[in-house]
């Protein structure tokens, strides 16, 4: 799995006015029309049960400079301060959308499939926000954060 290069996202949700979120690389486009995507969430993650109850989540695609945010959203000790220091809003659902990310996909859960340690949540996209023109993603490979700046500049 360390050889699988992936974009990095923050998956968020909310319950009783409280925001929750975690870093994730297991995010995949399923269908373009209607727009549908999936996320794979470990059952041990705090966010797992909340997505299950709330029935919605937002996928925020991280940009090259967001590695600090990815670290914070994957560190249990920083759970209470994960949303600090950045601007968040909401789109259709109550899930936090990260202003300044590459894109936010607000989703309603349409199906969930339990697979061993993880649940695959399939989300119907209810809103999309493209926050920036320049698309240079944060990527994760072999346990390290990197960027695709070269590829973006060639485009
Ligand atoms: C780059 C990166 C990618 C990750 N991808 C996933 C993922 O796709 N699914 C998952 O369940 N956990 C993933 N994790 C682990 C969670 O972010 C981490 O366990 C997080 O602390 C869970 O949230 P919690 O502390 O609120 O339980 C990833 C962590 C990192 C650093």
Order of helices and strands: EEEEEHEHEEEEEEH
* CATH class descriptor: Mainly Beta
In this entry the ligands are:
flavin mononucleotide
The CATH superfamily name is Electron Transport, Fmn-binding Protein, Chain A
| Spatial extent as radius of gyration | 15 Å
Q: Tally the helices: what do you get?
A: 3
- Assembly category: single chain
Instruction: Give, in spatial order, the strands making up the sheet with the most strands.
Output: 3-2-6-9-10-5-4
Alpha-beta classification = mainly beta
The main sheet comes to: 7 strands, antiparallel
Number of strands: 12
Q: Per DSSP, what share of the residues sits in E-state strands of 2 or more residues?
A: over 45%
CATH fold-level assignment? Pnp Oxidase, Chain A
Organism: Pseudolabrys taiwanensis
Domain Flavin reductase like: 1-147
Protein name: Flavin reductase
GO molecular function: FMN binding; riboflavin reductase (NADPH) activity
Can you characterise this structure?
The chain has 155 residues and is mainly beta. The chain has a single domain, classed as Electron Transport, Fmn-binding Protein, Chain A (Pnp Oxidase, Chain A). Strands 3-2-6-9-10-5-4 form a 7-stranded antiparallel sheet. Strands 1-11-12 form a 3-stranded antiparallel sheet, with no helix packed on it. Strand 4 and strand 5 form a beta hairpin. Bound molecules: flavin mononucleotide. The site of flavin mononucleotide has 18 residues, from strand 3, strand 5 and helix 1.
């Amino acid at each position: 799995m360390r050889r699988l290069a992936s974009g990095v996202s923050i998956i968020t949700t909310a319950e009783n006015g409280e925001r929750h979120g975690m870093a994730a690389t297991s995010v995949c486009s399923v269908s373009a029309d209607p727009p549908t995507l999936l996320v794979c969430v470990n059952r041990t993650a705090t966010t797992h049960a909340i997505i299950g109850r709330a029935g919605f989540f937002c996928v925020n695609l991280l940009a090259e400079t967001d590695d600090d945010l990815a670290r914070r959203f994957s560190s249990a000790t920083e759970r209470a301060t994960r949303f600090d220091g950045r601007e968040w809003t909401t789109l259709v659902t109550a899930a936090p959308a990260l202003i300044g990310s590459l894109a936010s996909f607000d989703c309603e859960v349409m199906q969930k499939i339990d697979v061993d340690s993880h649940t695959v949540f399939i989300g119907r996209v209810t809103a999309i926000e493209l926050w920036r023109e320049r698309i240079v993603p944060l990527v994760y490979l072999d346990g390290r954060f990197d960027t695709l700046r070269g590829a973006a500049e060639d485009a």
